[in-house]
Write a structure and sequence with these properties.
Layout: E1 2-7, E2 13-19, H1 20-31, E3 37-43, E4 51-57, E5 65-70, H2 82-92, E6 100-104, E7 109-113, H3 120-126, H4 130-154, H5 168-186, H6 193-211, E8 216-218, E9 227-232, E10 238-242, E11 249-251, H7 254-261, H8 270-283, H9 286-292, H10 298-323, H11 333-346, H12 351-371
Parallel strand pairs: 1-3
Antiparallel strand pairs: 1-2, 3-4, 4-5, 5-7, 6-7, 8-11, 9-10
Length: 374
């Protein structure tokens, strides 16, 4: 018999797509004693098809709550869930990831540490000044260095990320995704095949330059909605938990940095971006300095990475709005277009691309601003 739960966002009854006996058996295995859930709430998920539920436990339980992740895809017998695989290497690298209490791959379930409800995005929005949230970003930069340095070193022949890469093919597929789901799908903008090909040809030199750089472990979605802010640690700083890392792959050192600093969800002042770039460069080991290459090209390469990343993000937002009914993602198109506009202004090399792409971006931004729910 399925468990009926209350969705904490939409406030209506939904059905947990897992038999209650499976949940009860898992809780007993975790705590080695019968443990009773008293409330199960569906959490707001990410842009994937994974679903998340918070299981509140009865008084006297070893933990007040934990989170259940339900994977949408079947896992072949004998193979690991990607989340579990990547988690092992990040944990070995000292990255603050949620504890895995139990993995049930045959049921596509993970029982995880509850990292709370405060995303870095929310911490930025509620802060009264830059000084309140900047230390959190400094910790994120320090964590990113750990991912790139120690996470890369930790990989072995069983690591899924070691088999995947941000190469020209992958970058190009993500630009195609933008045209398919944002331009033609959501925007319904008239664009001929030759016009699209001409824009893709202007993208290509930037994609080739970034793909040619040495590769490190890349989280792939290292932004303010995938960093949870926890309680205070000794010394007064807040603890962090890094989420949504299951799609990690090898990529250039700028990819995750631009995801954090040119974020669609939380725009940072340029002064803060400069400070955090300095912090990253200062914390980088000689290995990482080799990965990001010529110091004189650092700022341009950060912008080149952001060019591809932000365009891909707009494709994701268009897809979520048009194909999955998640229209709240439309509100993030205008700030992402603003990032790209500023990027074009800073970089004369991008201006031939900007002349063809800006009218499309501006049209998408205007449409999204009108249609985004309040």
């Amino acid at each position: 018999m399925p468990i009926c739960v209350r969705n904490n966002v939409l406030e209506h009854q939904v059905t947990l797509p897992v038999d209650e006996r499976t949940v009860a058996a898992a809780l007993s295995a975790i705590f080695r004693a019968p443990t009773r859930p008293v409330r199960i709430s569906e959490l707001a998920g990410d842009a994937s098809t994974r679903r998340y539920f918070r299981i509140a436990l009865a008084d006297g339980s070893p933990l007040p709550s934990l989170v259940l992740m339900l994977y949408p895809d079947e896992i072949p017998p004998g193979e690991e869930l990607p989340f579990v695989n990547v988690h092992r290497y990040l944990k070995a690298a000292g990255v603050p990831v949620p504890e895995i209490h139990l993995a049930v791959p045959e049921a596509r379930l993970l029982f995880l540490e509850d990292a709370g409800d405060t995303m870095l995005e929310g911490a930025v929005q509620s802060a009264k000044s830059e000084e309140e949230y900047l230390p959190l970003y400094e910790d994120c930069v320090e964590t990113l260095v750990r991912i790139q340095r120690d996470g890369t070193r930790a990989l072995d022949g069983k690591a899924i990320p070691a088999r995947l890469a941000f190469d020209v093919k992958k970058f190009s597929e993500e630009i195609d995704f933008f045209f398919e789901h944002a331009v033609r799908g959501y925007g319904e903008l008239p664009l001929s095949e030759s016009e699209e090909r001409a824009i893709e040809d202007l993208f290509l030199p930037f994609l080739e330059e970034m793909a040619a750089l040495p590769r490190v472990l890349a989280h792939r979605d290292y932004h303010s909605r995938n960093v949870m802010v926890m309680g205070r640690l000794p010394g007064g700083r807040r603890g962090l938990r890094i989420l949504d890392f299951q799609d990690a792959r090898m990529g250039n050192a700028f990819y995750d940095l631009c995801s954090l600093l040119r974020d669609s969800y939380a725009a940072l002042p340029e002064k803060a971006v400069g400070h955090l770039c300095y912090s990253y460069r200062h914390a980088s080991t000689s290995e990482l300095r080799m990965a990001w290459g010529d110091p004189a090209a650092f700022e341009f390469r950060l912008d080149a990475a952001a060019l591809q990343r932000n365009v891909k993000a707009i494709g994701t937002f268009g897809n979520q709005a048009r194909n999955r009914g998640k229209r709240f993602y439309l509100r993030f198109i205008p700030p992402t277009v603003a990032h790209l506009a500023a990027n074009f202004e800073r970089n004369p090399r991008m201006r031939p691309l900007a002349r063809k792409l800006r009218p499309i971006l501006d049209a998408l931004s205007s449409k999204a601003a009108e249609e985004a729910p309040p």
